[in-house]
């Protein structure tokens, strides 16, 4: 629903104006400061929005005539405020009377108070849009999950960094064995070597005994010629045994226990190095574990963001190029504070219209931020979208649809507003 015609008298700075705004596109009410431009918008807001928008000093200073507002909508609905209390009267095309409740069905409050939306926080704007397209709860749940995952990843990342630093600080001994050395194992190996060496010594002792026996026989041979034949036979047998024993003895090699003795002496130092290496291995494994956790959480965060973006991509947004990122409105890649004033107005208008499709108009005050070419572009967009915007601008240029001066529309015939006079008659009270 749009505004066909509005008539205003004695509201704030307005004396008497009559405006027929374009049904589609931009209608600019121009004029210098203090001439009544904003009073026109305030009158529309009061008439359609209800008494909560009533100006604190609604009646024009210096006038005893009560405010009068009449707005005719494009469907024939007539909204009037007049009389001492500025009572509301709503008449539908069939002549039936109605009230504020009917107006509330098609009037979007933000269309009457666009600065309320534009001055809201980035989060509030985003929440309005998300609620509008019906994905607010879903996006909120996904963003909460994303926030939780981000917190978890941040905590894991800190632990991973600590583990990496701790692992780098650990001393490592490349020459140390992989496992701690057991003293009992070294002693057992030492005893085995000593046993083998004892056997070798026994064989050496046997060799010495046989050599001694051979020498004793030689002495007996010298002294006992009569027993020579027997002794030679015995010596020959003994010589053969000696030869066998010598060959066996020459093949024997004693094993050194020096290394084991050194290990036994240095076992605490060796085990200290082993433990240090094991600590470093554990620290490195911990660092790798938390790094894997960090990467997994990063993947989950990416997945949540992709689901959120997919949800927004599928939603029916009120304006091409408009989206929500990190609870902020984004239009053509720019956040709200980086948008031009024209883009901010375009985004606000599109969202306000989407909030209540029955409301086909939006009021805008102080449109000075747009240059003439931007105004023209904005007006063309409004016409294309079938939207009606009634705006004010401190200007008297050709871009203005009407010019207000001293409470009147320039070029309009000024209606004669007679002050009500009381006629006194004698004897009457």
Task: Supply the key terms.
429 residues; alpha+beta; Rossmann fold; 6-stranded antiparallel β-sheet; 5-stranded mixed β-sheet; 12 helices; 14 strands; disordered C terminus; RecF/RecN/SMC N-terminal domain protein; P-loop_NTPase; coiled coil
**CATH fold field value of the domain at 3-107 and 356-409:** Rossmann fold
Structural class: alpha+beta
Topology order in helix (H) and strand (E) letters: EEEHEEEEHHHHHHHHHEEEHEHEEE
Largest pleated sheet: 6 strands, antiparallel
Q: What proportion of the residues is helical, as a percent range? A: 40-55%
Question: How many beta-strand runs?
Answer: 14
The CATH class label of the domain at 3-107 and 356-409 is Alpha Beta
Oligomer: single chain
Low-confidence sequence ranges: 418-429
If helices are DSSP runs of H or I spanning 4 or more residues, what is the number of helices? Answer: 12
Q: Provide the CATH architecture of the domain at 3-107 and 356-409.
A: 3-Layer(aba) Sandwich
- State Rg: 53 Å
Q: What's the pLDDT, averaged over the residues?
A: 84
Give the N-terminus to C-terminus distance in angstroms. Answer: 49 Å
In short:
By secondary structure, the protein is of the alpha+beta class. It has helices at 37-49, 100-106, 109-112, 114-118, 122-132, 136-169, 183-223, 228-251, 258-265, 267-314, 341-355, 372-385, and strands at residues 3-9, 16-19, 25-31, 68-73, 78-82, 87-91, 97-98, 322-325, 328-331, 334-335, 361-364, 388-394, 402-405, 408-409.
């Amino acid at each position: 629903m749009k505004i066909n015609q509005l008539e205003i008298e004695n509201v704030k700075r307005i004396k008497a104006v009559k405006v027929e705004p374009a049904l589609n596109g931009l209608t600019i009410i121009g004029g210098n400061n203090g001439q009544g431009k904003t009073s026109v918008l305030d009158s529309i807001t009061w008439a359609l929005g209800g008494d909560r928008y009533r100006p604190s000093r609604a009646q024009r200073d210096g006038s005893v005539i009560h405010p009068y507002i009449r707005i005719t909508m494009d469907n024939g609905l007539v909204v009037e405020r007049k009389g001492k209390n500025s009572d509301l009267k709503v008449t539908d095309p069939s002549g039936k009377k109605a009230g504020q409740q009917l107006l509330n069905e098609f009037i979007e409050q933000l269309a009457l108070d666009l600065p309320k939306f534009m001055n809201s926080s980035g989060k509030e704007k985003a929440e309005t849009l998300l609620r509008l397209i019906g994905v607010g709860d879903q996006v909120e749940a996904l963003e909460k999950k994303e926030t939780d995952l981000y917190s978890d990843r941040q905590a894991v990342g800190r632990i991973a960094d600590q583990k990496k630093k701790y692992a780098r600080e650990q001393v490592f001994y490349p020459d140390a064995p992989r496992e701690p050395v057991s003293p009992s194992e070294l002693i057992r190996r030492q005893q085995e070597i000593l046993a083998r060496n004892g056997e070798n010594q026994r064989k050496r002792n046997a060799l010495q005994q046989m050599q001694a026996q051979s020498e004793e026989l030689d002495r007996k041979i010298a002294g006992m010629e009569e027993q020579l034949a027997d002794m030679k036979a015995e010596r020959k047998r003994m010589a053969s045994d000696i030869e066998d024993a010598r060959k066996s003895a020459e093949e024997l090699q004693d094993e050194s226990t020096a290394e084991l003795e050194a290990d036994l002496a240095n076992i605490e130092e060796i085990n200290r190095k082993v433990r240090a290496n094991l600590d470093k291995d554990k620290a490195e494994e911990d660092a790798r574990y938390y790094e894997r956790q960090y990467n997994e959480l990063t993947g989950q965060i990416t997945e949540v963001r992709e689901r959120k973006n997919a949800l927004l991509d599928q939603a029916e947004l009120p304006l091409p190029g408009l989206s929500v990122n990190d609870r902020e409105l984004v239009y053509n890649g720019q956040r709200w504070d980086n948008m031009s004033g024209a883009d901010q107005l375009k985004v606000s208008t599109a969202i306000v219209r989407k909030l209540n499709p029955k409301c086909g108009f939006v009021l805008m005050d102080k449109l000075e931020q747009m240059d003439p070419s931007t105004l023209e572009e904005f007006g063309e967009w409004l016409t294309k979208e079938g939207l009606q915007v009634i705006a004010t601008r401190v200007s008297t240029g050709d871009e203005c649809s009407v010019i207000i001066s001293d409470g009147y529309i320039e070029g309009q015939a000024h209606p004669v507003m007679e002050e009500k006079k009381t006629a006194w008659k004698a004897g009457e009270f």
